[in-house]
Predict the structure.
Amino acid sequence: MSLPEGAHAELLREAIEAEAGAQRALLAGEREPAAERLRAAAELYRASWEAAPPRSYGRLIGMLKAAVIAGDAADAAAYAQEQLAAEAASPPACYALAIAALVAGDDRAAAEAAAGMHGGSPPMERAADAITALAAGDRSAYADAIRAIVADFEGRDEHLTGVAIADTALMLERIAGERAIAAGVASPLLPR
């Protein structure tokens, strides 16, 4: 089925709105409604990716982040790895691939992709440090990296969805929890 030109922008807007609703629910302690909204956001990010111009990697990152936080990222990770098989050359593409590799348990690929995130924005470099530490199983380095990510989010005036939440930290802590090395950082920008 062919989508009208510009549909990717509307799908992206809907994905961000669904994610914002999920984030508000998470911060209010409403886990099940949040998970449902996150799954919807992941689907919308994927649809937006499929309709978007090439190299719109932020949509894959959004899909993965929503799926990881919802607690069912295996399919999203496999999809992202398939989509990025020959394309992980930019820091955003490497970020998506690194998340997917962590979810898939391929720590070597995650570390290699994290190395490709360097040269991106400072927040992306902080995420790369956390991913590298997760891939290495380095609890101390991971805790330092996740605290830096949370501090960055706490210092921001604006957030992508309009909701003040440290979603990158939340995603990484979910993965770290499955590896028994979560840092357990407390912040008003993280659900309790």
The chain is about 70% helix and 0% strand. The chain has a mean pLDDT of 94.
